[in-house]
Amino acid sequence: MAKRPKQSVEKYHDRVAGKYDHSYEDQYWRWHDAITWDHIKPHLPTNQRVPVLDLGCGTGKWAAKLSKSGYTVTCVDISRAMLDQADTKLAESGDAGASFVQADLCDLAELPAGQFGLALAMGDPIGCSKSPAKALKEIRRVLTPDGLLIATFDNRLCALEFYLSKADPQAMEDLLRTGRTKWLTRDHAERFPIHTYTPSQTRKLLTSAGYEVLDMIGKTVLPMRHYRHILEDSQDRRRWMKIEKSLHRDEAAIGRASHLQVVAKASSCRGS
After folding, report:
1. Residues with Cβ within 8 Å of residue 49, at least 6 apart in sequence
2. Is the pTM of this model over 0.85?
3. pLDDT digits (tens, 9 = 90+) for 159-202
């Protein structure tokens, strides 16, 4: 059988898998991840026997947290190298029950329908797929009736400043018209497309794919990536987190955030 050609998103993540975690180990990312997990925890299935999914699992950061919380996790990623990293991470944490599936989110045929009570899709993997609408329908197919999807999406409004800094009105007009940009890396063969959405467009995308949006936060409203130094003190980190949480559901403030984190319930209707 001929070997299938790799997509650009797969090539990139295969290359960086071994060093990926090193890019996300400072105080900012620990603060960012604590906000992420605090938003996820209230929506974890009450029945720990219900299997859960980590879509676009990467090196298994969130799968490890789900496993530690008592759930049986299926890790899905388009990158085999990322899955290998996740396998190692979960094995080192003592989890021998996780399973690993290499798949495009637009084709989850290997997964059974109606089985998973929760699907996480952190790090914007839906927006990095060829068709976010198709990926969302595939995810809905494998969720239990009323199962939950918790996912992040790139906020289109946050990208405006980048194109201003480049003094490139054509590129900004293209972004606003199509919602598409690209992951910028030196190798052009690894520059995969990214679909971006405003908060209202994110709601519309999910509703059209058969979900009910239950909650949305901006992540993060405070542009803390540019002020990492003020997170060095633990007491200050807690204060900044409290301020962040006072803002990140405010409809007016969400538009400032670089990402949108959404909790959506799968419709009980299984039509297309």
Report:
1. 72
2. yes
3. 888 889 999 999 999 999 999 998 878 787 888 889 999 999 99
Beta-bridged to residue 120, according to DSSP, are: 54, 150
Decide if 73 is inside a domain.
yes
Q: From CA 30, how far away is CA 51, in angstroms rounded?
A: 27
Residue 212 in domain: yes
Give pLDDT, residue 269. 53
Domain with 108 in it: 8-266
Residue 32, H or E segment: helix 27-40
182 in a structural domain? yes
Round to whole Å and give the CA distance between 132 and 163: 23
**CATH code, domain carrying 118:** 3.40.50.150
To 5 degrees, how large is the angle CA 117–CA 121–CA 127? 135
DSSP reduced 3-state for 260 = strand
Residue 48 forms part of a structural domain:
yes
Instruction: Dig out the tokens for 129 from the structure.
Output: 């797929």
Cα angle 178-182-184, degrees, rounded to a multiple of 5: 155
Q: How many domains, in total, are found in the chain? A: 1
Going by DSSP bridges, is the β-strand pair 193-195/211-219 parallel, antiparallel, or unpaired?
A: unpaired
